[in-house]
Amino acid sequence: MKRVAVLGAGITGVTTAYALAKRGVHVTLIERHRYAAMETSYANGGQLSASHAEVWNHKATILNALKWMARRDAPLLLHPWPSWHKLSWFAEFLAAMPAYERNTIATARMAIAAREHLFAWAQAENIDFDHRRAGILHVYRDKAGFERAAGVSRLLAQGGLQRRAVTPQEMRAVEPALQGDFYGGYYTDSDSTGDIHKFTSGLADACVRLGVACRYGVEVTALAREHGGVRVSIGEDSTLFDAVVICAGTASRAMAAMLGDHVNVYPVKGYSITVQLDDAASRAAAPSVSLLDDATKLVSSRLGEDRLRVAGTAEFNGVNRDIRADRIRPLLQWVEQCFPGVNTRKVVPWAGLRPMLPDMLPKVGPGKASGVYYNTGHGHLGWTLAAATAEMVAEVLVASSSAADR
């Protein structure tokens, strides 16, 4: 089988390497960090959430972005400073609005397909990633948000996902620890949560057992098409591979440009906090069921017994990984308001850059040139979709290789 380089060892790169290795492909996994899953796959919200498959190409997103521009703590913060990258991305985002329903349904289908693969891999490789199958509860503070969610639920149902409306009383039964006034909610019992960093690290170890050559701590400096393959340069060294799969998150745009492709990934910054539940009272007061609060655009996941992850916000500010206190503060306040019995003395903040494409669908499959493939641009759903898109790109690559060999 041909030699393939997978560029990037986040959740999409590691799952891609694993899916290829399981098919007998000779894989080299290349990552600029010393370990797998050290960027956006490090501390996300933890949700494996088909129920969060709605794409953002909707007028409500535009209205919220404009309304919140003056708020430094806004759930969606659009910095007004222009750049060609930002302007071109938003132009394509607007152009994709007519496909909102179709793309939401397609995303839900991918998310459901991903579950089967991810769960099977974790079992086969004995990966403990704090997986919790308690469902996800979406909560709404007003009638307008709840009624809009009914329309989203109809689209998700077309994609094969069932979620049910719940009253405030039923919400308390699902998650007794939740405090506050809510109009209603939607509960998806088939969704689950888990630690993306633990899973990706465990699957990276499994890749090594399958013969994947892992090159960590090295930077790809150039990519060039050559003799039907792709030459990958790392500093002074270069290697000719029969194919490459670009899974490089926000770096995918620059890598694609080297190979003649336009992959308009934009870095959308998100934040998280991990609350350490060191005392019995905090563990009892913290939620067991994963939540998504529509008003604040925050999600929470219980990771094991002693950690609560809260994540969210979207910040359009280019390649900027700064952790800002004014962006972390709303996450802390949400915990204090919704779960007042949780001690927030010990909290670890984090920020990461989601690789988002304008139509909110990942780019999966071949590029223009022979031997070039992509599995990137998953945005806020990398953890949810990666296992499915890894299988998709691996299947296409192996089929193309087999056809070329005949």
Protein traits:
single chain, 406 residues, alpha/beta, FAD/NAD(P)-binding domain, nine-stranded mixed sheet, six-stranded mixed sheet, 11 helices, 20 strands, globular, oxidoreductase activity, D-amino acid dehydrogenase, FAD/NAD-bd_sf, oxidoreductase
Compact overview of the structure:
With 406 residues, the protein is of the alpha/beta class. It has eleven helices and 20 strands.
Descriptive overview:
InterPro entries: FAD-dep_OxRdtase, FAD/NAD-bd_sf. GO terms for molecular function: oxidoreductase activity. Keywords: Oxidoreductase. Residues 3-395 form the FAD dependent oxidoreductase domain. The protein is an alpha/beta fold and 406 residues long. The chain has one domain: FAD/NAD(P)-binding domain. 36% of the residues lie in helices and 26% in strands. The chain has helices at 11-21, 59-68, 84-95, 100-124, 143-158, 168-174, 196-209, 252-258, 280-285, 325-338, 382-405; strands at residues 3-7, 26-31, 47-48, 76-78, 136-140, 164-166, 184-188, 192-193, 213-216, 222-226, 229-234, 237-241, 243-246, 266-276, 290-293, 298-303, 307-316, 347-356, 363-366, 372-376. Helix 1 runs parallel beside helix 7 (196-209). The model has no long low-confidence stretch (mean pLDDT 95).
